[in-house]
Amino acid sequence: MRLSPRVTRIALTLALTALVAIPAGATTLVRESLKGLTDQNQLIVYGRVLDIYSYWNAEHSMILTDVRVRPNQVLKGDRVAREVTFTLLGGTVGEITTLIIGGPELVPGSDYVLFLNKEPLLAEQAMLTVRDLSQGAFAVADVAGGRRVFSQALNLSLLPDSEGVSEPPGGKDGLTLDDMLTQVRQLAGDR
Known about the structure:
alpha+beta
């Protein structure tokens, strides 16, 4: 039986995704504290996703997605940034979707607190990305009593950290937006 080129490409993309996700998953599925996220990322923003754009990498072996964000506040890093663009593994081009298990799910028009760092993606040059997958993305939601942030890692089974904690920061109840912003600023050294 001969497979069509499209089926072969999808199978290769899935295999590559599995190979890339295994090493990343081994480190990012261990619960990361707010302090760890703050210390290990060079740029932390609270902002709105303006748009997303998915495309094939130069080798046509993986789909990448560029995310453009307008910061409301930069909590760590370049404080004068009017826009931030970062890249994620995965996305949809035409009829082909590459899904990274545990990756952040970002929606244009929605607000997030994002922990970003320059990391090599595949064989590409170092690019700004959410290095901690869904642990590095906190969705901002309007709930009774005000705005709260919720880790996108809530639905993952995280391995306990060194203190035995396995629930992401804020847990199922999240944190108030103000509390999250204050904590991150303090952890980043901006008192």
